[in-house]
Design brief:
Layout: H1 3-26, H2 30-56, H3 67-73, H4 77-105, H5 112-137
C-alpha cells in the first residue's frame, strides 16, 4: 500500500470516529463517546501511526532540535503520514475527552457545537475554548 492510499484511509477512518463520537453525545451513550470514540478508535489510529513511523524510519534526515531539522523529518511520505495520523489520533482522543469532561462538569452539550469542530480542525484551539467554557460554566466556576 502506498502512503497516499493509507492517508485517505486514515482520514476516512478518523472522520468515522468523529461521527461515532457525535452519535455517542447525541444519544447520550457514554460507551460510544468514552470507549469507542475516546479509546478504541484512537488506539486503532495509533497502530497506523506506528506502522507509518516504522516504514519511514531512517529514510529522511532531520531531528527535533530546529525547525529546519523537523521540516527535514517530513520529507519522506511515510514520516509525513505518521505525523498526520498522530494529529488524527490525538485530536479525536482530546475531542472525546472534552465531551466526557463537559458531561462530568454538568455543562450543556450545546457548548460542544463550537468546541468539537474547532478541536477536529485546530486541536489546541478547541482545547483552549473548552478550558475557557469550563472556567466560566463548570462546577468550579464562581457564581
Amino acid at each position: 500500500m502506498s502512503p497516499e492510499l493509507l492517508f485517505r484511509l486514515a482520514n476516512g477512518f478518523a472522520l468515522l470516529g468523529w461521527l461515532v463520537l457525535v452519535a455517542g453525545i447525541v444519544t447520550n451513550r457514554a460507551w460510544l463517546r468514552d470507549k469507542l470514540a475516546g479509546i478504541y478508535w484512537p488506539l486503532a489510529l495509533s497502530v497506523g501511526y506506528c506502522a507509518a513511523l516504522f516504514l519511514g524510519f531512517g529514510k529522511s534526515g532531520g531531528g527535533f532540535d530546529t525547525l529546519p531539522a523537523v521540516r527535514q523529518l517530513f520529507t519522506n511520505d511515510w514520516s509525513l503520514l505518521a505525523g498526520w495520523v498522530h494529529y488524527l489520533a490525538f485530536d479525536l482522543f482530546v475531542g472525546a475527552w472534552i465531551a466526557a469532561a463537559l458531561a462530568r462538569e454538568g455543562i450543556s452539550r450545546w457548548f460542544l457545537i463550537p468546541v468539537l469542530p474547532l478541536t477536529f480542525l485546530f486541536g489546541p484551539a478547541g482545547f483552549l475554548l473548552f478550558q475557557i467554557i469550563k472556567a466560566f460554566f463548570g462546577k468550579g466556576a464562581k457564581s
